[in-house]
Write a structure and sequence with these properties.
Helices cover about 45% and strands about 20% of the residues. By secondary structure, it is of the alpha/beta class. It has 2 domains: about 1-110 and about 275-353, Isopropylmalate Dehydrogenase (3-Layer(aba) Sandwich), CATH 3.40.718; about 125-255, Isopropylmalate Dehydrogenase, CATH 3.40.718. The protein has a 10-stranded mixed β-sheet, sandwiched between helices. Strands 6-7 form a two-stranded antiparallel ribbon. Helix 1 (about 15-30) packs parallel to helix 13 (about 340-350) and helix 12 (about 315-330) packs across helix 13. It is globular, with a radius of gyration of 20 Å. Bound molecules: 1,4-dihydronicotinamide adenine dinucleotide, 2-OXO-4-methylpentanoic acid and magnesium ion. Its cofactor is Mg(2+); Mn(2+).
Amino acid sequence: MSRTVRLTILPGDGIGPEVTDAAISVLTAVAPDAGLSLAIDRCPFGGAGIDATGNPLPEQTLKSCVSADAILLGAVGGPKYDEAARHQGAPRPEQGLLGLRKELELFANLRPSKLFEGLEAASPLRRDIVADTDILIVRELTGGVYFGDHREGTDVASDIMPYSREEVDRVARVAFEAAKGRNGRLTSVDKANVLATSRLWRAVVDDVAKDYPTVTVDHVLVDAMAMHLVTKPASFDVVVTENLFGDILSDELSAIVGSIGLAPSASLGTPDTPGLFEPIHGSAPDIAGQGIANPIGTILSAAMLLRHGLKADAAAERIETAVSTVLKQGLRTKDLGGDADTAAATSAILAAL
Ligand SMILES: NC(=O)C1=CN([C@@H]2O[C@H](COP(=O)(O)OP(=O)(O)OC[C@H]3O[C@@H](n4cnc5c(N)ncnc54)[C@H](O)[C@@H]3O)[C@@H](O)[C@H]2O)C=CC1
Ligand SMILES: CC(C)CC(=O)C(=O)O
Ligand SMILES: [Mg+2]
């Protein structure tokens, strides 16, 4: 007997539809052996939501997300929408994404990045420096400067970065749990020499640490962390940080291990809200429509969807093993210095399954 699971798919904009199609074909391939029957609802979101309804998070799309077992997103945004926002005051696709994260209270964003075997030459770092890099960034996702008050004037503008003890506590616990299940090392990244929110962040992380005596915690300032990631990436295990710093450091880390096109993520809230699974990259307007996007970040996000969203760990592992295998065998999309297109990469992964 198979279990029917409801998946809301948000292809979004740019390369979003290309990479979500690839991930759906992989999910569809592993579902039967995992005892899953997929009920897929594709919904307009981001720029596509604006085109369809004027709203980046249309009411029907939100309804579908709320009642789904899990959500898979491609990416949102693009120059056409930036122009309309600038000149006509139109809504931005990115507001839809921030709105969805907030609506579902998806406060913990897991962004794993590791060096796959065979990809040493794709890293901009020396082989001996990048070797063994395997980091999980836990990024706070529904607080901080993305959600504070924004004031936009022609001469003065401001963005407020608020954090409460509760917001820091809950994401810190996710990070400590993750560290406990890995190597027991947690690095908390902040800017406590300048920011009040960072001093609160540091104090709360130290309080939560008392509940996790087997985890060792270090505090590192974000500017130094940006440097450490390129000089000694293999010395970090789990990293927890606030929204903006996590956004930036995870893009940096993804390039260190080869390409932003490889990096998946899981955005999680309480156990009874559906998780949102998406690659960390954006809509890549510079390569959209050419069929050359790397689909691996989205395919690995589908694996995270199976593990965290559907508790189908074996199916998740099958996908991760297939991705490792094809990379070890030499499959390279353009971002990794090769010439495999999206379709060829997807076919290779399907074959490796
Ligand atoms: N989660 C989301 O939906 C996000 C949306 N954005 C939006 O995306 C748009 C473009 O932003 P950018 O700053 O250009 O960031 P981006 O991540 O879309 O692209 C940065 C660079 O990485 C390359 N790239 C990204 N994904 C790739 C993939 N799968 N395969 C191969 N190459 C890939 C792009 O071609 C580009 O050269 C903007 O409108 C931005 O607001 C940006 C980040 C996240
Ligand atoms: C709102 C998003 C566009 C922010 C972002 O870059 C991300 O979440 O990775
Ligand atoms: Mg980002």
